[in-house]
Amino acid sequence: MKALLIGATGSTGKFLLNELIQDDDYTSVTIFVRRPTGRSHPKLSEHVIDFSQLDQYSEHITGDVLFSCLGTTLKDAGSQKKQWEIDFEIPATFARIARQNRVNSIVLVSSADASPKSNIFYSRMKGELETAITELDFGQYIIFRPGPLLREGSDRSGEKILVKTLDFFNGIGLLKKYKPLPTEVLAMKLAKAPWKLPQGTSILKLQEIAAF
User: Residue 14 is part of a domain; what is its CATH number?
Assistant: First the structure.
């Protein structure tokens, strides 16, 4: 199986890239990045691209499965407009091109509360992305909806406080829907998903991810 990956340098993507390279079920892994990663492997193809001109690279967006784990925070993006561009427009465009090129499967990292009807910007954005990809009619569409992610070496103070708070509530049996998940664990689940799940649409919330 030939894998395509966007978000390969992110907190989840870097672990997913390792999983895909090490997994014998994947014969090749193609990543799309803004800057060279310095990674080298016989199975790996790297394309340094302009993400605002994705159609120019359509000939390279071919394979069997697209893994989409590109995303940012509002703080890092600087504005909702820029976050929308990164979290919605780029993944949606990649998915469109991949489907046009007959990629059959897509695995999307979404959000626990994703809903196009949400009053919360982030949750609504993720929900609208899920819907946009649904309309592309992939043969296999796998949506992961984890809660907060535990990022290796994170220096985000707000994230650390959130994790500690959730750990407390999880410890007394509350808010288990939002139990933090290590990104390396999520990456392992993502890599195996196309093999373990059927054709059609599968939505995995935290409980299903943990049991998967």
Answer: 3.40.50.720
